[in-house]
Amino acid sequence: xxxxxxxxxxxxxxxxxxxxxxxxxxxxxxxxxxxxxxxxxxxxxx
Length: 46
What we know:
Elements: H1 2-45
């Protein structure tokens, strides 16, 4: 049973890391969008 629990914990950790990686990518994409919008506003202002 202890082995199964350890295996489950390992899978949970791997899943959490994937979740964090996904969030990091989402934040990166949002930052890119903000940069793009800022450039558009900058272009319009000029």
